[in-house]
Amino acid sequence: MPKFDKIRLLFLCCFALFFFACKSEKESDAVKIATAANMQFAMNDLIKTFQQETGIQCETVVTSSGKLTAQIKAGAPFDVFVSADLIYPNKLFKEGFGEEKPKIYANGTLVLWTTSEIIKPSIELLSEEKIKHIAVANPKTAPYGRATEEFLEKTGKFNELESKLVFGESISAVNRYIHSGSAAIGFTAKSVVLSPKMKNLGNWIEIDPSQYSAIQQAALLLKAEQPKTFKNARKFYEFLFSAKAKKILEQYGYRS
């Protein structure tokens, strides 16, 4: 890992620790959820429903699954890890960070998105000279980036487009590139383009799921020292697999 990336990772871990250390005594029982960036918008609705039903408060830290995994290993006090894939939760479980084996709560879908009203997204369009930059999540830390890389390689486009690719550390960074116009177009999660904030912005097409490995998104109930915190965390973890949660996830384009 490059020196700059190590420094940035250390900063993120320290920030996560500082963020929760600064919470008041009153908020100490809140469920702390490490959330993959693609789940940011859906998670807001999930938490809202959960809090209304239980009265249990929740806090989130949102970034790539790889970064969150590193933070958990560094001691960040999370209670539940909601990942964008099954790989990272499985690794953490095997290393003793989880209470039980992680479970898949949904399958993600990849889309090609632009906020421009005049651009019609297509795979063929990516090769055109007018497309200078294509936003992609970092395949080393973000499962949606890994799926994008696999799709481009499978369709024989990766080598041709490699010089145009602009990598963001997570889907959130990719969305910023696309939204700001820094990249004319990019690959993101379907949950993003279906979110209330983004659903009427620009144009998008869904990438055929058969063209990349299934994005099996899984959650891991992490070990906790405080019994009350763990009890609340388990309630949220179980809620994530409920019929109500499934309905919310389907509204954001996630598949069972």
Pick out its properties.
about 260 residues, alpha/beta, five-stranded mixed β-sheet, 10 helices
SSE order and pairing:
Blueprint: H1 3-21, E1 31-36, H2 40-54, E2 58-63, H3 65-73, E3 80-82, H4 87-94, E4 103-108, E5 110-114, E6 134-137, H5 143-154, H6 158-161, E7 165-168, H7 171-180, E8 185-189, H8 190-193, E9 203-206, E10 215-221, H9 227-239, H10 243-251
Parallel strand pairs: 1-2, 1-3, 6-7, 6-8
Antiparallel strand pairs: 3-10, 4-10, 5-8, 5-9
Q: Which consecutive residue ranges, at least 5 long each, have pLDDT under 50?
A: 21-27
**What is the 3D shape?**
globular
How much helicity do the residues have? 40-55%
Strand content: 15-25%
Task: Write the element-wise H/E pattern from the N-terminal end onward.
Answer: HEHEHEHEEEHHEHEHEEHH
Query: What multimeric state do the chains show?
Result: single chain
- What integer value in Å does the Rg equal? 18 Å
Query: How far is the N terminus from the C terminus?
Result: 35 Å
| Mean pLDDT metric | 91
- Main sheet: strand order: 2-1-3-10-4
Main structural class: alpha/beta
SS field, number of helical segments: 10
* Strands, total number: 10
Q: Strand count, sense and closure of the main sheet?
A: 5 strands, mixed
